[in-house]
C-alpha cells in the first residue's frame, strides 16, 4: 500500500513499534476499544458489532465484526470472526480489502495462533504461555522462528479485573512492518481477548 494514499489512522500506525489497546468498560453492550500510542494519544477506535442475543446465547463463541475507525472517523479496518465448529479464526480487512487470516492452531499445551497473509501463506506464529493468567505474554515469531514482538496482557487492577471484562494490552511489533500485517496483529490481539479473557 502506498503511504501517500493511506488514511490518517493507517499512516500513524505505520510509524509505531508499540500499540496500547484499552478496552472500555461495557455492561451487556458491544465491546469498545481505544488503540493508542505509548504516550496515550488515540490512533484508532474499535467497536464490536454483534447482536444482544448472540452475546447472551453464544457468549465467547459468538460470531462478530469489529469495525475500526481512525480519529477522523474513517473506517480503516474490519475484523470478522465467523462462527465455526473448528478452530477460532479472524479475517482481517484493511480499507475494504482482505489482507490476512488469523487462525488458532489446535494444540494440547500452549496456545498457538497462526497469522497468514491474504493467500493463506504463513507470516507469524503467536505463542502463549502454558497457563493463561490476568497478566501474560503471547510471543510473536516470524517464520524463521525469530522473536519479533509480543502481545502483552496487562494487569488492570483488582477492581477492574474482578468486576468487568475491560482488559489492557500492549502490542510490540517491528516498526517497519507493513501496515497490513500490523492490522493482522491487532486482529490477533482482539481474538486473544475474545478467546481467553471475555467474561
Automatic annotation (TrEMBL):
Which terms in the GO cellular component ontology are assigned? plasma membrane
A molecular function annotated in GO for this UniProt entry is:
phospholipid scramblase activity
Q: Does the keyword Lipoprotein apply?
A: yes
Q: Which Pfam family, any one of them, does this sequence belong to?
A: Scramblase
Q: Which cofactor does it need?
A: Ca(2+)
Keywords for this entry? Calcium, Lipoprotein, Palmitate
Report the InterPro entries cross-referenced here: LOR_sf, Scramblase, Tubby-like_C
Q: Origin, by domain of life?
A: Eukaryota
Family to which this protein belongs? Belongs to the phospholipid scramblase family.
Q: What does this protein do?
A: May mediate accelerated ATP-independent bidirectional transbilayer migration of phospholipids upon binding calcium ions that results in a loss of phospholipid asymmetry in the plasma membrane.
Name used for this protein in its record? Phospholipid scramblase
**Gene behind this protein:** LOC106124989
